[in-house]
Specification:
mainly beta, Elongation Factor Tu (Ef-tu), domain 3, 2 domains, six-stranded antiparallel beta barrel, single chain
């Protein structure tokens, strides 16, 4: 479980696909303390919960390895990740941690495409398009997770929606590099999903 509050931006330093292309072993460099990363730990990478299978320190910098399986490669932007790709990272929530964003499972529901970016004096506005299946869970002033970042929905129009990003978030996450045409991982709000399911069962 996560909160959508990014605690580091990592970088993929190696990527090794299997012969069948069903699994990618990724090595990600980060600023986390190596002593705090245990094998089997969960780390959200651009909003995708991945399991640490190895970790270490090289040239004074911490690294950890994760495996991206076939379903992850099919349903998320992990299919586009390459050596040098920067990823928003978040460690799993611990009991007693501050819940600064909203409850995030780290199970990306799919991909949203950025339609436009508008740089304003004190923030940036992004308009995105998603699928109709996911759009029904998105509401004005509701929560949304994009590439692992907890955000508030600004506007909704059918299958498109917009978010406003403050300068701090643009600086400490990968959002500053988003452009029209970019694809991002999307996780809809869990509460919205459960509410929709309860409605369907009536």
């Amino acid at each position: 479980m996560f909160t959508g509050i990014v605690t580091d931006v990592g970088e993929i330093t190696s990527l090794t696909p299997t012969a069948q292309g069903q699994l990618h072993r990724l090595r990600i460099a980060c600023r986390y303390d190596r002593a705090t990363i245990a094998d089997g730990a969960s780390i959200a990478c651009n909003g995708v919960c991945l399991t640490v299978v190895a970790s270490g320190v090289e040239s004074g910098k911490t690294w950890f390895d994760v495996d991206a399986a076939a379903e992850t490669l099919a349903l998320t932007t992990a299919k586009h990740w390459r050596v040098g790709t920067r990823l928003n990272l978040e460690r799993a929530l611990k009991i007693g941690d501050e819940l600064g964003g909203h409850i995030v499972a780290g199970h990306a529901d799919g991909i949203a495409t950025i339609i436009s970016r508008q740089d304003l004096p004190d923030m940036a506005r992004f308009e995105l398009r998603t699928t109709r299946d996911l759009a029904r869970f998105i509401a004005v002033k509701g929560s949304i997770t994009l590439d692992g970042v907890s955000l508030t929905v600004n506007t909704v129009d059918d299958v498109t929606f917009s978010v406003l990003i403050i300068p701090h978030t643009l600086t400490v996450t990968t959002i500053g590099g988003w452009r029209a045409g970019s694809e991002v991982n999307i996780e809809v709000d869990l509460m919205a999903r459960y509410a929709a399911r309860l409605t369907e069962m009536k």
